[in-house]
Amino acid sequence: MDYFAAARAFVCAAELQSFSKTANALSVKTSTVSRYVSELERDLGIALFNRSTRGLVLTEGGRLFREHALLALQALDDAREVTSSLNRTPQGVLRVTMPPAFGRLHIVPHLPAFMARYPDIDFDIVSTDETLNMIDAGIDVAIRTGVLPDSSLMARRLAPHRRIVCGSPAYFARSGTPRVPGDLAARDALRVPLVQDDKWYFTQVTADARASQVQEQVLVELQGRLRVDDSEAVLALAVAGCGVALLPTWLTSTALREGRLQHVLPEWEARTGRAEPAVRAVYPPKKIVSSKVRAFVDFYAEAFGEPPYWDDGLALEPQP
Protein backbone atom coordinates (compact mmCIF):
# COMPACT_ATOMS: atom_id res chain seq x y z
CA MET A 1 0.00 0.00 0.00
CA ASP A 2 1.19 3.51 -0.83
CA TYR A 3 0.58 4.89 2.65
CA PHE A 4 0.82 8.57 1.77
CA ALA A 5 -1.54 8.15 -1.20
CA ALA A 6 -3.96 6.26 1.01
CA ALA A 7 -3.72 8.91 3.74
CA ARG A 8 -4.39 11.68 1.19
CA ALA A 9 -7.42 9.81 -0.12
CA PHE A 10 -8.72 9.31 3.42
CA VAL A 11 -8.24 12.98 4.40
CA CYS A 12 -9.97 14.13 1.22
CA ALA A 13 -12.84 11.70 1.78
CA ALA A 14 -13.22 12.93 5.36
CA GLU A 15 -13.59 16.47 4.04
CA LEU A 16 -15.90 15.70 1.11
CA GLN A 17 -17.80 12.91 2.91
CA SER A 18 -17.98 10.94 -0.34
CA PHE A 19 -15.76 8.40 -2.10
CA SER A 20 -17.04 9.45 -5.55
CA LYS A 21 -16.36 13.16 -4.92
CA THR A 22 -12.92 12.26 -3.60
CA ALA A 23 -12.24 10.23 -6.73
CA ASN A 24 -13.14 13.21 -8.91
CA ALA A 25 -10.98 15.54 -6.82
CA LEU A 26 -7.96 13.22 -7.00
CA SER A 27 -8.56 12.08 -10.60
CA VAL A 28 -8.71 8.39 -9.66
CA LYS A 29 -11.41 5.73 -9.69
CA THR A 30 -13.96 5.50 -6.89
CA SER A 31 -12.88 1.89 -6.36
CA THR A 32 -9.30 3.10 -5.78
CA VAL A 33 -10.41 5.47 -3.02
CA SER A 34 -12.51 2.73 -1.43
CA ARG A 35 -9.57 0.32 -1.60
CA TYR A 36 -7.21 2.85 0.02
CA VAL A 37 -9.59 3.39 2.94
CA SER A 38 -10.19 -0.35 3.35
CA GLU A 39 -6.43 -1.00 3.41
CA LEU A 40 -5.95 1.72 6.04
CA GLU A 41 -8.73 0.27 8.18
CA ARG A 42 -7.17 -3.21 7.90
CA ASP A 43 -3.76 -1.86 8.82
CA LEU A 44 -5.06 0.15 11.78
CA GLY A 45 -7.50 -2.51 12.94
CA ILE A 46 -10.27 0.04 13.32
CA ALA A 47 -13.11 1.49 11.24
CA LEU A 48 -12.44 5.03 10.05
CA PHE A 49 -15.89 5.83 8.68
CA ASN A 50 -19.47 5.04 9.45
CA ARG A 51 -21.33 4.72 6.15
CA SER A 52 -24.85 6.11 5.92
CA THR A 53 -27.26 7.26 3.25
CA ARG A 54 -26.16 10.84 3.99
CA GLY A 55 -22.53 10.03 3.30
CA LEU A 56 -19.39 9.26 5.26
CA VAL A 57 -19.10 10.13 8.96
CA LEU A 58 -15.79 9.82 10.80
CA THR A 59 -15.61 7.45 13.72
CA GLU A 60 -13.69 8.39 16.88
CA GLY A 61 -10.69 6.53 15.49
CA GLY A 62 -11.17 8.27 12.15
CA ARG A 63 -11.11 11.69 13.77
CA LEU A 64 -7.92 10.85 15.64
CA PHE A 65 -6.20 9.44 12.54
CA ARG A 66 -7.28 12.43 10.45
CA GLU A 67 -5.75 14.85 12.97
CA HIS A 68 -2.34 13.18 12.79
CA ALA A 69 -2.54 12.38 9.08
CA LEU A 70 -3.04 16.08 8.31
CA LEU A 71 0.16 16.92 10.21
CA ALA A 72 2.14 14.22 8.41
CA LEU A 73 0.88 15.26 4.98
CA GLN A 74 1.60 18.93 5.73
CA ALA A 75 5.13 18.01 6.82
CA LEU A 76 5.67 16.13 3.57
CA ASP A 77 4.34 19.05 1.52
CA ASP A 78 6.57 21.44 3.47
CA ALA A 79 9.62 19.24 2.84
CA ARG A 80 8.90 19.20 -0.88
CA GLU A 81 8.34 22.96 -0.97
CA VAL A 82 11.52 23.78 0.96
CA THR A 83 13.66 21.48 -1.18
CA SER A 84 12.22 22.58 -4.52
CA SER A 85 12.50 26.25 -3.55
CA LEU A 86 16.30 25.92 -3.47
CA ASN A 87 16.28 26.08 -7.26
CA ARG A 88 13.60 28.78 -7.41
CA THR A 89 14.64 32.36 -8.07
CA PRO A 90 13.36 34.77 -5.37
CA GLN A 91 10.79 37.01 -7.01
CA GLY A 92 7.71 39.13 -6.47
CA VAL A 93 6.91 42.24 -4.45
CA LEU A 94 8.52 42.36 -1.00
CA ARG A 95 6.63 44.61 1.41
CA VAL A 96 8.96 45.78 4.19
CA THR A 97 8.44 48.05 7.18
CA MET A 98 11.28 49.66 9.14
CA PRO A 99 11.98 52.51 11.56
CA PRO A 100 12.76 55.67 9.56
CA ALA A 101 16.15 56.43 11.14
CA PHE A 102 17.53 52.90 10.98
CA GLY A 103 16.11 52.42 7.50
CA ARG A 104 17.74 55.57 6.12
CA LEU A 105 21.12 54.74 7.64
CA HIS A 106 21.40 50.97 7.28
CA ILE A 107 18.71 49.50 4.99
CA VAL A 108 18.37 51.93 2.10
CA PRO A 109 22.14 52.30 1.43
CA HIS A 110 22.39 48.54 0.77
CA LEU A 111 19.27 48.31 -1.40
CA PRO A 112 21.09 48.90 -4.72
CA ALA A 113 23.35 45.89 -4.07
CA PHE A 114 20.40 43.74 -3.01
CA MET A 115 18.34 44.67 -6.08
CA ALA A 116 21.29 43.98 -8.35
CA ARG A 117 21.64 40.53 -6.81
CA TYR A 118 17.88 39.82 -6.99
CA PRO A 119 16.53 41.58 -10.09
CA ASP A 120 13.14 39.82 -9.87
CA ILE A 121 12.25 41.30 -6.45
CA ASP A 122 10.37 44.61 -6.30
CA PHE A 123 10.00 46.63 -3.09
CA ASP A 124 7.14 48.30 -1.27
CA ILE A 125 8.69 50.04 1.78
CA VAL A 126 6.70 51.40 4.71
CA SER A 127 8.91 53.67 6.82
CA THR A 128 7.37 54.21 10.25
CA ASP A 129 8.16 54.00 13.96
CA GLU A 130 4.70 52.52 14.49
CA THR A 131 4.59 48.78 15.15
CA LEU A 132 2.22 47.68 12.42
CA ASN A 133 0.08 44.57 12.54
CA MET A 134 1.95 42.62 9.88
CA ILE A 135 -0.96 40.40 8.90
CA ASP A 136 -3.47 43.24 8.55
CA ALA A 137 -0.97 45.49 6.72
CA GLY A 138 0.20 42.73 4.37
CA ILE A 139 3.82 43.09 5.54
CA ASP A 140 6.27 40.37 4.49
CA VAL A 141 9.11 41.36 6.82
CA ALA A 142 9.69 44.06 9.43
CA ILE A 143 12.98 45.45 10.71
CA ARG A 144 12.62 46.18 14.41
CA THR A 145 15.10 47.60 16.87
CA GLY A 146 15.16 47.35 20.64
CA VAL A 147 13.25 44.82 22.71
CA LEU A 148 10.84 42.57 20.84
CA PRO A 149 7.53 42.13 22.66
CA ASP A 150 6.17 38.64 23.11
CA SER A 151 4.22 37.61 20.04
CA SER A 152 3.56 34.75 17.67
CA LEU A 153 5.81 36.30 15.01
CA MET A 154 9.03 34.69 13.84
CA ALA A 155 12.23 36.69 14.39
CA ARG A 156 15.90 36.49 13.43
CA ARG A 157 18.55 38.54 15.20
CA LEU A 158 20.54 40.55 12.65
CA ALA A 159 22.77 42.61 14.95
CA PRO A 160 23.12 43.82 18.53
CA HIS A 161 21.31 47.01 19.47
CA ARG A 162 23.91 48.47 21.79
CA ARG A 163 23.12 51.75 23.51
CA ILE A 164 25.77 54.03 24.97
CA VAL A 165 25.66 57.02 27.27
CA CYS A 166 26.96 60.00 25.35
CA GLY A 167 27.00 63.77 25.11
CA SER A 168 28.99 66.54 23.50
CA PRO A 169 32.53 67.28 24.77
CA ALA A 170 31.34 70.84 25.49
CA TYR A 171 28.49 69.55 27.68
CA PHE A 172 30.81 67.35 29.75
CA ALA A 173 33.39 70.15 30.01
CA ARG A 174 30.61 72.32 31.44
CA SER A 175 28.82 69.83 33.71
CA GLY A 176 31.58 67.33 34.45
CA THR A 177 32.20 63.86 33.04
CA PRO A 178 30.25 61.16 34.92
CA ARG A 179 32.46 58.47 36.45
CA VAL A 180 29.76 56.12 37.75
CA PRO A 181 26.09 55.70 36.71
CA GLY A 182 24.88 57.48 39.83
CA ASP A 183 26.49 60.69 38.59
CA LEU A 184 23.86 60.87 35.84
CA ALA A 185 21.16 61.71 38.37
CA ALA A 186 22.59 65.23 38.51
CA ARG A 187 22.83 65.63 34.70
CA ASP A 188 20.29 66.82 32.14
CA ALA A 189 19.01 63.65 30.48
CA LEU A 190 17.36 63.69 27.07
CA ARG A 191 14.34 61.52 27.78
CA VAL A 192 11.45 59.75 26.11
CA PRO A 193 8.06 61.50 26.32
CA LEU A 194 5.01 60.06 28.10
CA VAL A 195 7.18 57.94 30.40
CA GLN A 196 6.86 59.32 33.91
CA ASP A 197 9.25 56.91 35.62
CA ASP A 198 11.87 56.59 32.89
CA LYS A 199 15.06 54.96 34.11
CA TRP A 200 18.32 53.64 32.72
CA TYR A 201 19.61 50.24 33.77
CA PHE A 202 23.37 49.69 34.06
CA THR A 203 25.33 46.45 34.29
CA GLN A 204 29.07 46.46 34.80
CA VAL A 205 31.04 44.96 31.89
CA THR A 206 34.61 44.99 33.21
CA ALA A 207 36.64 41.78 33.06
CA ASP A 208 36.16 41.26 36.81
CA ALA A 209 32.41 41.72 36.45
CA ARG A 210 32.21 39.24 33.55
CA ALA A 211 33.97 36.62 35.67
CA SER A 212 31.49 37.12 38.50
CA GLN A 213 28.37 34.98 38.69
CA VAL A 214 26.37 37.94 39.99
CA GLN A 215 26.84 41.16 38.04
CA GLU A 216 26.13 44.47 39.70
CA GLN A 217 23.14 46.31 38.31
CA VAL A 218 22.44 49.97 38.95
CA LEU A 219 19.19 51.76 38.29
CA VAL A 220 19.38 55.51 37.63
CA GLU A 221 16.38 57.84 37.90
CA LEU A 222 16.50 60.52 35.21
CA GLN A 223 15.83 64.20 35.19
CA GLY A 224 15.92 66.82 32.47
CA ARG A 225 13.85 69.44 30.71
CA LEU A 226 13.70 67.78 27.29
CA ARG A 227 11.59 64.80 26.22
CA VAL A 228 11.82 63.77 22.56
CA ASP A 229 10.21 60.89 20.65
CA ASP A 230 12.62 60.92 17.69
CA SER A 231 16.07 59.34 17.98
CA GLU A 232 17.65 61.56 15.33
CA ALA A 233 16.35 64.64 17.15
CA VAL A 234 17.88 63.33 20.39
CA LEU A 235 21.18 62.87 18.55
CA ALA A 236 21.07 66.46 17.27
CA LEU A 237 20.29 67.79 20.76
CA ALA A 238 23.08 65.75 22.32
CA VAL A 239 25.59 67.05 19.74
CA ALA A 240 24.34 70.58 20.47
CA GLY A 241 25.23 70.17 24.14
CA CYS A 242 21.69 70.02 25.54
CA GLY A 243 22.28 67.02 27.76
CA VAL A 244 23.33 63.42 28.09
CA ALA A 245 21.64 60.77 25.91
CA LEU A 246 21.32 57.01 25.74
CA LEU A 247 21.53 56.22 22.03
CA PRO A 248 22.29 53.17 19.86
CA THR A 249 25.71 52.88 18.27
CA TRP A 250 24.13 52.41 14.82
CA LEU A 251 22.98 56.04 15.14
CA THR A 252 25.95 57.63 16.94
CA SER A 253 28.95 55.97 15.26
CA THR A 254 29.64 58.83 12.81
CA ALA A 255 29.38 61.53 15.49
CA LEU A 256 31.65 59.52 17.79
CA ARG A 257 34.30 59.09 15.09
CA GLU A 258 34.15 62.80 14.26
CA GLY A 259 34.48 63.79 17.92
CA ARG A 260 31.10 65.54 18.06
CA LEU A 261 29.97 63.06 20.70
CA GLN A 262 31.82 61.57 23.64
CA HIS A 263 31.09 58.10 24.99
CA VAL A 264 31.12 57.99 28.80
CA LEU A 265 30.82 55.12 31.30
CA PRO A 266 32.35 52.53 28.93
CA GLU A 267 32.64 50.08 31.86
CA TRP A 268 28.86 49.87 32.00
CA GLU A 269 26.28 48.42 29.62
CA ALA A 270 23.23 50.67 29.55
CA ARG A 271 19.64 49.77 28.68
CA THR A 272 16.22 51.33 28.95
CA GLY A 273 14.83 48.09 30.39
CA ARG A 274 15.92 44.72 31.71
CA ALA A 275 15.39 42.75 28.48
CA GLU A 276 18.18 42.48 25.90
CA PRO A 277 17.59 44.64 22.80
CA ALA A 278 18.64 43.72 19.26
CA VAL A 279 18.11 44.54 15.60
CA ARG A 280 15.79 41.84 14.26
CA ALA A 281 13.98 40.82 11.11
CA VAL A 282 10.43 39.81 11.99
CA TYR A 283 8.00 37.96 9.74
CA PRO A 284 4.63 36.22 10.08
CA PRO A 285 4.62 32.67 11.44
CA LYS A 286 4.71 30.35 8.45
CA LYS A 287 6.06 26.84 8.24
CA ILE A 288 7.84 27.83 5.04
CA VAL A 289 9.51 31.21 4.77
CA SER A 290 9.23 32.54 1.21
CA SER A 291 12.42 32.70 -0.82
CA LYS A 292 12.18 36.50 -1.19
CA VAL A 293 11.97 36.99 2.60
CA ARG A 294 14.78 34.53 3.21
CA ALA A 295 16.95 36.29 0.60
CA PHE A 296 16.31 39.68 2.22
CA VAL A 297 17.06 38.50 5.76
CA ASP A 298 20.20 36.58 4.77
CA PHE A 299 21.48 39.53 2.73
CA TYR A 300 21.19 42.04 5.57
CA ALA A 301 22.62 39.67 8.16
CA GLU A 302 25.67 39.38 5.90
CA ALA A 303 25.76 43.13 5.17
CA PHE A 304 25.68 44.12 8.85
CA GLY A 305 28.35 41.62 9.86
CA GLU A 306 29.31 40.38 13.32
CA PRO A 307 30.15 42.64 15.04
CA PRO A 308 28.17 45.13 12.93
CA TYR A 309 30.13 47.48 10.68
CA TRP A 310 28.84 50.59 12.49
CA ASP A 311 30.79 49.52 15.61
CA ASP A 312 34.00 48.96 13.66
CA GLY A 313 36.88 51.02 15.02
CA LEU A 314 34.94 52.47 17.97
CA ALA A 315 36.49 52.17 21.43
CA LEU A 316 33.34 50.83 23.03
CA GLU A 317 34.88 48.39 25.47
CA PRO A 318 36.62 49.40 28.72
CA GLN A 319 40.39 49.40 28.42
CA PRO A 320 42.35 46.98 30.68
UniProtKB/TrEMBL annotation:
Residues 1-59 form the HTH lysR-type domain. Pfam families: HTH_1, LysR_substrate. Signal peptide: none annotated. Keywords: DNA-binding, Transcription, Transcription regulation. It comes from the Bacteria. InterPro entries: LysR-type_TF_proteobact-type, LysR_HTH_N, LysR_subst-bd, WH-like_DNA-bd_sf, WH_DNA-bd_sf. One of its GO terms (molecular function) is DNA-binding transcription factor activity. Belongs to the LysR transcriptional regulatory family. This is LysR family transcriptional regulator. It comes from Paraburkholderia sprentiae WSM5005.
